[in-house]
Design a protein that fits this description.
Blueprint (H helix, E strand, L loop, with lengths): L2 H5 L11 H28 L2 H24 L2 E8 L5 E3 L1 H8 L8 E12 L5 E13 L5 E15 L4 E10 L19
Parallel strand pairs: 1-6
Antiparallel strand pairs: 1-2, 3-4, 4-5, 5-6
C-alpha cells in the first residue's frame, strides 16, 4: 500500500473514492428514508378499518360512475358472490355475468354506504357492511327507491389495493312484498 493510501482512508486498498460521490449519496439518504417511511405509512393507513371504509366508498363511487366496469374493477379474480335466491357466482367472470343485468338499465342505479368495517389479525383481509338502495330515476330526474337492504363484503389486500373476495346481501323485504325484488339481486346478492 502506498503512503498516500495509508494517509487517506478514502484511498484505502488503492481504490480512490470520490468525495463528491459520497456527498451525493449522503444527500440522497434522507430522501430515500422519507420515501420508505411514506410507503410504510400508506400501507399502515390502508391496512386499517378506515382504509377498508375508504375502499368500499371508492367501490360505490366507481359503480355509480362507470356502472358494471366500475363495479367489476374492485373484484378479485377468485371472488365469490352470493346470488339472491340462487347459487354462488365463483370467479370474476361469473360475477360479471351474474351482475350484468342490473347495470343494463341506465335509469336504475345502486347506491350504498358502509356502516362498519373490521380487519382480521393478518392485516390483509377484512370486511365492510352497510346499507344499500336500488333506485330508479324517471324522466324528470325524480328517484324512487325500488329496494333496500344490508350487505357484507369481504376484502383482501392485493397490489394495488383492497379487492372484493366475497359479496353478499340481504334485502329488507321479501319477494312477496317487493314486486321488483329481482332488483335486489343486483347488488351484493340483493
Amino acid at each position: 500500500m502506498t503512503q498516500h493510501s495509508r494517509a487517506n482512508p478514502a484511498c484505502a486498498g488503492g481504490r480512490h473514492f470520490s468525495h463528491n460521490r459520497t456527498r451525493r449519496v449522503a444527500a440522497l439518504l434522507p430522501v430515500l428514508l422519507i420515501m420508505i417511511l411514506t410507503v410504510g405509512l400508506a400501507t399502515a393507513a390502508e391496512r386499517s378499518e378506515a382504509g377498508l371504509m375508504a375502499a368500499d366508498r371508492a367501490f360505490a363511487e366507481a359503480a355509480a360512475k362507470d356502472r358494471l366496469d366500475g363495479w367489476m374493477r374492485f373484484f378479485a379474480d377468485d371472488a365469490v358472490k352470493f346470488v339472491f335466491k340462487g347459487s354462488l357466482a365463483r370467479g370474476k367472470e361469473a360475477v360479471r355475468a351474474a351482475d350484468a343485468a342490473m347495470f343494463q338499465d341506465p335509469s336504475v342505479s345502486l347506491a350504498w354506504e358502509p356502516t362498519d368495517a373490521g380487519l382480521f389479525s393478518d392485516g390483509g383481509t377484512g370486511f365492510t357492511r352497510g346499507d344499500y338502495r336500488v333506485l330508479r330515476k324517471d324522466d324528470s330526474g325524480r328517484e324512487t327507491v325500488l329496494s333496500t337492504g344490508t350487505y357484507l363484503t369481504m376484502w383482501r389486500l392485493e397490489d394495488p389495493g383492497w379487492k372484493v373476495i366475497l359479496d353478499a346481501g340481504q334485502p329488507d323485504t321479501n319477494d312477496e312484498d317487493n314486486p321488483d325484488g329481482h332488483l335486489d339481486s343486483d347488488h351484493r346478492d340483493h
